[in-house]
Amino acid sequence: QVQLVQSGAEVKKPGASVKVSCKVSGHSLTELSIHWVRQALGKGLEWMGGFDPEDGETFYAQKLQGRVTLTEDTSADTAYLELSSLRSEDTAMYFCTTRRYTGAYLYYFDSWGQGTLVTVSS
Amino acid sequence: DIQMTQSPSSLSASVGDTVAISCRASQHITYYLNWYQQKPGKAPKLLIHAASSLQSGVPSRFSGSGSGTNFTLTINSLQPEDFAIYYCQQSYSIFYTFGQGTKLEIK
After folding, report:
1. Is the pLDDT assigned to residue A66 strictly greater than 90?
2. A43, A107, A117, best to mutate vs chain B, most B CBs in 10 Å
3. Contacts of A98 in chain B (CB under 8 A)
4. B11-21 pLDDT tens trace
5. How far apart are CA A38 and CA B4, in angstroms?
6. Distance in angstroms (rounded) separating the CA atoms of residues A77 and B26
7. What is the pLDDT at residue A104?
8. Does the structure show a pLDDT above 90 at A77?
9. Looking at beta carbons, which residues of chain A come within 8 Å of B89?
10. Going by DSSP bridges, is the β-strand pair A3-6/A57-60 parallel, antiparallel, or unpaired?
11. How far apart are CA A110 and CA A59, in angstroms?
């Protein structure tokens, strides 16, 4: 059973950057496809991006392109989300999740981290 | 991006009722549709994948149907633990998108 444990809450000023970690256990990170989803307080879920191991590419949501970077340290089984040029509307809970592939191009998100609250405030 | 629209946005029901939540995609997505349940302060939980396949461990009172652009999540005989927010999500495009959510409240 895959477990994802995220880093703790962050408070950042507008214009700064934040880096959130997602530590994987129960599986090697190299066998997983980690994606990131965020949720502003009281709002819905927004996919941010993720790694597609089938073609080795990282995909990002268009609205975040240029500000978000996803990386992985496979030796530490840890994935990272970095978001730059923070603004107040980036205040949200950030989740890492594993994308599962079951064949016939079918994908879903099954295991989730506990979430990391990022607050952007001056 | 593919837009996902859920209806209703909120729903009141009683324990024992049967409810249905709709999800419409802005383009044809065949059966690449997943449903999640989210409770306050928790991460989402997968209920249904591929429009109608029940995730392991999820009670059989949950069911999904539909294909193309119109999908439905049905919950039979509501239990107290089912009051939560439900989201649909398309996996047709890797630029994944979620519906805005349906809040299921106790009447």
Report:
1. yes
2. A107
3. none
4. 999 999 999 99
5. 17
6. 37
7. 82
8. yes
9. 45, 47, 108-109
10. unpaired
11. 19
- How confident is the model at residue A43, as a pLDDT? 96
A30 min Cα distance to partner chain B (Å): 19
DSSP result, A44-80: --EEEEEEETTTTEEEE-GGGTTTEEEEEEGGGTEEE
- B chain contacts of residue A106, beta-carbon cutoff 8 Å: 32, 49-50, 91
CA gap A115, A111 in Å, rounded: 12
- Kindly state whether A102 is in contact with chain B, defined as any CB-CB distance less than 8 angstroms: yes
Rounded to an integer, the average pLDDT of A80-87 is 98
Cβ of A47 within 8 Å of Cβ of B55? The answer is no
Q: Enumerate helices (H) and strands (E) in chain B, giving the number of each.
A: 0, 11
The answer for residues whose C-beta is within 8 angstroms of residue A98's C-beta and 6 or more apart is A2, A4, A32, A33, A34, A35, A109, A110, A111, A112
Amino acid at B66: G
Average pLDDT, chain B: 97
Distance from CA of B78 to the nearest CA of A (A): 23
Tokens 């040029």 — which residue? Answer: A85
Residue B99 has which token pair?
Answer: 């519906």
- Whether residue A110 and residue B46 make contact (CB cut-off 8 A), yes or no, is yes
